[in-house]
Structure formats: structure tokens, C-alpha cells
Write a structure and sequence with these properties.
- This protein has two domains: 144 residues, Immunoglobulin-like; 108 residues.
- By secondary structure, it is mainly beta.
- The protein is built from one helix and 19 strands.
- The longest helix is centred in the N-terminal third of the chain and has 4 residues.
Length: 341
């Protein structure tokens, strides 16, 4: 092998007493449980990243302790954003009840929930649940929030709690690859069919107040995760240029085996000759992926590394100038010519 250097939201409200039909003594239209949101570590310009510019919906699960018994006032409730006034709302209002403890879990995107992301709801207030996630083709972002703001905040008569402020965090790692054309002979190159051959396909994120811990699911398998080409298949780029693949999302589970990356390099020489090289490289094991972080692996393709079998050998020349032979001495007879002759 040729080496190339290369959340949930928890909110508990501690109240005086709790009964299932008791409500806070205030106008109901001001006592409804409301939500606000912010997405952490957003990166604008990537169409599949969830950020504050394109985040429009999430689902919320809520637990409430009523007379010591758990009740589920929110169970996958869809919360949507009104783009005109930048507020979030859900269809049927739920009101704070005096004397009850509450906890909430919020997850997005809604298109993934119930399909690639299966949420196991907690059974008691103050628990956070877990998400079993199937990564598929690596194009689905996954976010959640964890917050203990309401753990010791009482709902008092005449005062409504603030909106629950979900600050969503990314659960997955973003990964992409970049390749620098280091050829000094004027060759142009392209890198195609970049893939991690043994990406993990299924993991379980156990949620806590501010973090999530990933483990691989028992039925996890490894499969190829394709990153595509750095340019369209018929294109190539010049020396000293660097081109990158699109990014994909990966499950950042600890203890995963070293990832193997394969890719194909095409090269066209200044005289029009074309060559193809197939590479297989292991990612550095010193890189331990973490949720919410982005990782770009960069390789330089030059005469030493472009061919995985052998380095390209530069045609070189040496020259010497042969010496002259020794002087051959030959007598030259010079005769005097007499006048008049």
C-alpha cells in the first residue's frame, strides 16, 4: 500500500404542586410552552448542512411528571418556523402546569426522523433518550439540543416562563478530501471515485444534557461511502492547484477500525499521453472524529506519490567532453627559393 502524507434538549421546571388539570393562574395565551432555536457551528453555502439560514422545522418530545406519573405532552410534535416573523409554533398549544417537572428533546431534520433516525423516547422526566441512526449515503445532517435551563426554574403565579431556547448541535462529523497537483512536469490531473470503503453504517447516540455518546449498533456493517470526483470526469486541473470533493457525514463512533480510502488519479502529460493510477490509503489513526467537527484530508500528488506502485523517475542526463589526443609532432621542411627562379 502506497502511503500519501495526507443534541437533545432537557428542560425541567420545578413547580409547587402538580395535578393533571391544574394550570398556571394567568391568561392561557401567555402561558403556552414556546420554543426558540439556534443552530451551532453552522456553515453557510453547503446545501445539505442544516444552519440558521435553512432551518425551518424540528420535532419535539416532552415528558411531564404529574403526581409522580410520567405524561407525554409532546410526542414527536412538529414545530415549524414562520419565516415572516421568525417565530416557531406548533398546532395545538400545551400550557405549563403549576407544580410539574418537564423535560424536552428536540431533533432535526424531520425528514430523517422515523426513517434513518429512530428516536427512543425517555420514560421519565430528566432523561434524554437515544437515537439509532443509519448513515445511508452520508448526505443527511443530524442535530439535537441538550439544556438544563429549566431544572431549577419555577413557574410562579403571574409570570410566564421564557420560550425554551433550543441550541441545536450537530451529531455527526463532516469529512471531505482534497488533492493538490504537485506535478512539476506540466501534467494536469483529476481525482475521481473517492470513497471510504469501510464506513460504519449504523450507530446509537445516547443523549445527555449537553453531549451525546456514540456507540456502534450490534447490527452495524461497514460499506463504501462515496465522495465522488473533485472535478467532472472529463476535466483536469493544473499544477499547484488543489481541488476537493463534496463533504459527507459520518458516525463519529469511538473504537472504529482505521478507515481505508480509495481513489483514481488520471494524468495527462504536456505531450498528450494519458495515465491512470488506482490508490488505496489508510486514514491516519491519530485522527479521532468528534461530533460537530469537520475534517479535510489533504494529499499532494507529485512524482513520488502519484503512482502507488513506483515513483516516477525523471529522465536525467549527464555529459562530458572527451579530451583531445596528444599533439603529433611532424617536421615541416621549409626550403628557400632562389631569386629569379
Amino acid at each position: 500500500m502506497k502511503k500519501i502524507l495526507f443534541m437533545s434538549m432537557a428542560a425541567t421546571a420545578l413547580l409547587a404542586s402538580c395535578s393533571q388539570d391544574e394550570t398556571v393562574d394567568m391568561p392561557q395565551n401567555s402561558a403556552a410552552i414556546q420554543f426558540k432555536t439556534f443552530v451551532n457551528k453552522s456553515t453557510k453555502g453547503a446545501s445539505d448542512d442544516i444552519d440558521n439560514s435553512n432551518f425551518t422545522a424540528f420535532q419535539v418530545w416532552g415528558m411531564k411528571s404529574t403526581d409522580g406519573q410520567p405524561v407525554k405532552p409532546f410526542e414527536g410534535t412538529l414545530v415549524s418556523k414562520d419565516a415572516q416573523n421568525n417565530t416557531w409554533s406548533y398546532e395545538t398549544p400545551v400550557y405549563w402546569e403549576a407544580g410539574c417537572n418537564y423535560s424536552f428533546v428536540a431533533i432535526a431534520p424531520t425528514t430523517a426522523i422515523g426513517t434513518s433516525a429512530i428516536f427512543t423516547q425517555p420514560t421519565a422526566v430528566g432523561q434524554y433518550g437515544s437515537i439509532t441512526f443509519a448513515n445511508g449515503d452520508g448526505t443527511t445532517d443530524l442535530i439535537y439540543d441538550g439544556d438544563g435551563t429549566w431544572a431549577t426554574t419555577a413557574v410562579t403565579e403571574g409570570t410566564c416562563p421564557n420560550a425554551i431556547n433550543f441550541t441545536f448541535n450537530h451529531l455527526l462529523s463532516r469529512v471531505k478530501f482534497a488533492f493538490t497537483n504537485g506535478m512539476d512536469d506540466g501534467s494536469t490531473i483529476n481525482v475521481t471515485n473517492v470513497q471510504i470503503t469501510n464506513a460504519n453504517t449504523k450507530g446509537i447516540a445516547t443523549l445527555s444534557e449537553n453531549t451525546a455518546t456514540w456507540t456502534l449498533a450490534e447490527d452495524n456493517n461497514t460499506a463504501a461511502l462515496g465522495f465522488g470526483n473533485v472535478l467532472d470526469a472529463e476535466q483536469e486541473y493544473e499544477a499547484n492547484d488543489t481541488k476537493a470533493t463534496d463533504h459527507k457525514y459520518m458516525i463519529p463512533a469511538a473504537g472504529a477500525d482505521a478507515y481505508t480510502v480509495t481513489f483514481t488519479v488520471s494524468r495527462t502529460t504536456p505531450t498528450g499521453e494519458q495515465y491512470t493510477y488506482n490508490h488505496e490509503v489508510e486514514l491516519p489513526t491519530t485522527v479521532e472524529m468528534e461530533a460537530g467537527n469537520s475534517y479535510q484530508f489533504i494529499a499532494t500528488l507529485d512524482a513520488e506519490t502519484i503512482d502507488p506502485e513506483n515513483p516516477l523517475c525523471k529522465i536525467e542526463f549527464t555529459a562530458t567532453v572527451s579530451g583531445w589526443g596528444d599533439w603529433n609532432n611532424t617536421d615541416l621542411t621549409v626550403e628557400q627559393v632562389a631569386d629569379g627562379q
